[in-house]
Amino acid sequence: MANLSYIRVMRALIIEDDAEAAEYLAKGLRESGHAAEVVGDGRDGLLHAATGRFDVLIVDRMLPGLDGLSLVHHLRATGQTTPVLFLSALGEVDDRVKGLRAGGDDYLVKPYAFSELLARVENLARRRTTTPVATKLAFADLELDLLSRKVTRAGRAIDLQPREFQLLEVLLRHPGQVMTRTMLLETVWDYHFDPQTNVIDVHISRLRQKIDRGFDVPLIQTVRGAGYCLRAPEASA
Amino acid sequence: MRLKRLLETSTFRLALIYLALFGVSALALLGFLYVATAGVLERQTAETIQAEITGLAEQYRAQGLVRLRQVIERRSAAHPQRASVYLLTDPAGRPMAGNLDRWPEADPGPDGWLTFTVEVQVEGDGVERRRARAATFGLTGGFRLLVGREVEDRLQIQSLIKQGIGWGLALTLLLGLAGGFLMSRGMLHRVDAINRLTRQIMAGELGQRIALSGTRDEFDQLAANLNAMLDQIERLLQGMRQVTDNVAHDLRTPLNRLRTRLEIALLADPEPAEWRALLEETLADAEKMIGTFNALLEIARAEAGSDRTAFGPVALAALTRDLAELYAPLAEDREIAFACACPPGIEVQANRHLLAQALANLLDNAIKYTPSGGAVRLSVENGAPGPAITVADTGPGVPANERERVLERFVRLDATRSTSGNGLGLSLVQAVARLHGARLVLDDNHPGLAVRLEFPAAAAAAPQPVAA
C-alpha cells in the first residue's frame, strides 16, 4: 500500500512579527522537507493567505496591522479553508476556545517544541486531503472497522479496550505522521496539559503489545523526542 | 507651621462647621427667648398705656376738660412714686394737672413715643433718676395729654438678657474653637504617628508595626487592619523571595550544566555522532526549563483566578473514571494496585481542565512515590460540607510538620532535588483548590499520604448556567 500523500511537500505560510523566531521556524520546516514563506504583518499576511497557495497557515495571535484572530476571521469570511495553526503566548483554555472559534484549527502555546509544531502542521496540512467518511481504516495488514469496532491484523482478530481502540483510530487516521504525546492526550482524552510522567507511553506500549507482538513488522514506531507514528519499515512499504 | 497644619485638618474643619451650626441654633434659641421675655413685657406696657390714654381721651370728649383734669389729678395722686406718669398741659405748654412738673424735653421716637428720665423719691430722702416711656395725645384747643410708665427695671432686665445672650454666644464660640483645636490636635497626633510609621516602612523597615492605644476605637481598628495588611504583605514578600531564590536555583543549575557541556564540547572537538548526543542532551535540559516556566505560569494563572469564566458543572464520576483509566496502566506497570471509587451523581462547579490537571498531578505524585507492591486509591465522597476527592497512596508519606511546606512552590522534601520533578505539582493543586474555593488537606494514610480536595457545599449546588 503506497502512502504517497504524506511524503508530499507542504507549503506553509508563517505570519509572525518576531522575525528571528519566524526565520527559525521557516528553516526548521525547510529542513523537514517543506516550503515556507514568512510575512511579518497582519494585513500582508491576509493578502498572502487569501491567494490559497498554501497548505497550512501558522498565525501568531499578536500581530501588527491586523491581529491573528481578525485575520483568520476575515480569511474564513472569504471562503478560504486553508488550515490554521495559532501560535500564542496566551495559554488559557478561554484563549484556545477563542482561537478555535475564530476559525483556527489548532492552537499551540509559546514556547513550544519545534517537533510538536511540525507534527501539528503536518497533521493539519494532511487533514485536507483525507476523506473522513470512511467506515474502515487500514494500514499495511492492520484493519480497523469503525462500525463493528473490530480490529484485525493479517486477518487475525485483536481484542482492544475502548481507549486503545480510540488511540489506534487516531494513529490510523494519520498514517506516516508523527503524533506527539500532547496531541494524543488532546484527541483521545480531551485534556490540554503536559503530564509529568509517561502515562501516554504506557498506553502506547500496551497497544503496541497487542498489535505488534507476534508479527515480524512492528507498525507503531517511536519518533525520538517527538512522539509516535504508524509507519512500516522501508522493506515492507 | 504646626498651627497651619492643625487648622488644615479635617477634624478642625468639621469642628468649625459644627460650631457654626451650633452657634446659629443657639442664636435662634436665645433670640426666641429674648422676644418671649423682654419683648412681651414691652408690648404689655405699651398696650396698657395706649388703653389708658384712649380711655382718658374719651372722658375728655364726653365730659370736658374739667373732668379730665380731675381724673388725672386722682390718678397722679395714686402714683406719688411716679411708677405711672401723667401730664396735662394748656395751649401755652403750662402744666395743668399730673405728676410731672413740665413737658419732657425729648424728641419722640419713630413710633411717636417719648423716652425720658424722671426723678423718683426712694426710701429715705434720696432721689433716683429713672427712665420712663410715654405716649402723647393732642386734645382740641391746643391741650396736650401725656401718659407713661417708669420702665427702668424692664430696660435693665432687657439689657441683662442681651448681655447674657452675648456672653453665652461668645463662650460657645470660644469653647467650640478650643474644643475643635484640641480634638484636631489629638487626631493629628495619632494620624501623624501612623504616617511616620508608614514612611519608615516604605523606607525599608518592614518589621515595624503601628502601636495600638488599647481603646479599641476606630483608630485602633484602622491600625489593627493596617498591621494585618502589613503582615500579609510581609508574608507575600517572603514567599516571593523564596520563589525567586528557588527559581534562580532551579534554573541556574540546568543552565550552568548546559553551558558547561557546550564549553567542553567546543574544547574537545567531538565526532559528529557525539555532537548529536550533546545537542539532544542540551535540548532535554532546555525542555525541562521550559516545563518549569510553564508550570509557574499555570500556577500564576490559576492563582489570578482569571479562568473563572471556564467554570461549569463537572460530573466527578466521569472525571475520575477518565483519569483512573489514564493512570491505571502506569500504576500496573509499576506493580501498584490502583483503585477508583466514585458514587454517581456528584457534580461540582469547576474548570474541568484545571481540575483534571490538579488530579493528574496528585496521581503522578502518588504513583511516583509509591514503591512497587503498594496501592494508590482515587475516591470521591459526598461528605460534609461538600464533595471531597481523595488521592491516597502507601508511599513514604509526608511528616505532619512538613505538610504545610510541601504546598509551597519548589519545595521538595528531597533536599538534594535529585529525583525528577520540579516541586511545582502540589503548588498547582493548591492554586486550583483555591480557585475553586476548595480546601487542600494532606493527611496520614497509615502508611502513606492521603491528599484530599474538599469542595465547599456551594460548589455542589445544582448546575448553574455558565457563560462559556
Tell me what you see in this structure:
The complex is a heterodimer of chains A (237) and B (468). In chain A, 38% of the residues lie in helices and 21% in strands. Chain A has 237 residues and is of the alpha/beta class. Chain A has two domains: 4-127, Rossmann fold; 136-236, Winged helix-like DNA-binding domain superfamily/Winged helix DNA-binding domain (Arc Repressor Mutant, subunit A, Orthogonal Bundle). The model of chain A is unreliable at 1-7 (pLDDT under 50). Chain B contains eight helices and twelve strands. Chain B has helices spanning 2-8, 10-78, 152-202, 218-268, 272-304, 316-333, 352-369, 425-435, and strands at 84-89, 95-98, 114-121, 127-138, 144-150, 312-315, 337-341, 347-350, 375-382, 387-393, 439-444, 449-454. In chain B, strand 9 (375-382) and strand 10 (387-393) form a beta hairpin. The interface between A and B is medium-sized, with 23 and 35 residues.
List keywords for this structure.
heterodimer, A: alpha/beta, Rossmann fold, Arc Repressor Mutant, subunit A, 2 domains, five-stranded parallel sheet, four-stranded antiparallel sheet, 38% helix, elongated, disordered N terminus, B: 468 residues, Beta-Lactamase, Heat Shock Protein 90, 3 domains, five-stranded mixed sheet
Helix content of chain B: 55-70%
The CATH superfamily of the largest domain in chain A turns out to be: Response regulator
Average per-residue pLDDT of chain B, rounded, comes to 83
- CATH level-1 class of the largest domain in chain A: Alpha Beta
Could you tell me the radius of gyration of chain B in angstroms? 51 Å
- Oligomeric state, counting identical vs distinct chains: heterodimer
Number of DSSP-assigned strands of chain B = 12
The CATH topology of the largest domain in chain B turns out to be: Beta-Lactamase
- The count of domains of chain A is 2
Low-confidence stretches of chain A: 1-7
**Main β-sheet description of chain A:** 5 strands, parallel
The dominant shape of chain B is rod-shaped
Backbone CA Rg of chain A:
19 Å
Examine the coordinates and then state which fold CATH places here, giving the name of the CATH topology of the largest domain in chain A: Rossmann fold
Strand arrangement, major sheet of chain A: 2-1-3-4-5
Classification by helices and strands of chain B: alpha+beta
For the terminal residues of chain A, how far apart are their CA atoms?
A: 7 Å
- Percent in strands of chain B: 15-25%
The major sheet of chain B is characterized as: 5 strands, antiparallel
